[in-house]
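Z., the sequence and structure:
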Amino acid sequence: MLNLTDRECTAIIAKSNTSATKLASESLRVLGQIALLKNRHDELVENIKIEKRKAVAAQEALILNKGVPKKVSGMRNSLLAKMDRVKREDITIAEQRRLDEEIEKLEEEIKTICNHPFVFHKEGYSGSSSDDYEGGYPSERYCVVCGLEERATDFRQNGRVDMVGSVFETFKSSEGRMVHKEPYRHHPQCLSKMDIWVPLGAALKPFEEVVAKVLHS
């Protein structure tokens, strides 16, 4: 036997309903606090990302401030001058041949002394599944100071070779190097590499713009 009167049962019902209402109200309040805390958490996470990006950009600004060694920039300027000279219409065949040889020699020499501080990354393509990935090609990186190029090495993924690759030996990311994607260009220009044989200031401008955009945001 319960040994409860109708009056006692009615009192329990009223008390429990009142408690349930209060608890439901408290639950809603807590849910509201959770939502606010979730929003604050998301905001903090985003701010952390922003500050980390700024720290990286400031580190890259140091690389830009350091610039290119005088020996490298001087050799590069000499190379550009010869490239301009060889394009002239009044040049003789003999001089053109001599300049072509000097240009080739300088291009190879500058690659050996450059430490490759400014590098563009060109994303590869994994290929189409309908073509059994035969059309894939690896990612590439190239120095905008000296023109040295490097293809990513392939690596196996899910039992097959990923043609895009991700490993670079010479152009690996480091504290003293800026590695950025090429500036966007429309098709078909985007298929070829950027022309790096321009004055050094123009070659480095895309890197400066990326850093400035982050630090001034």
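Residues 1-66 form one domain. The helical segments are 6-66, 70-86, 93-113, 200-215.

Let me know what you think.
H.
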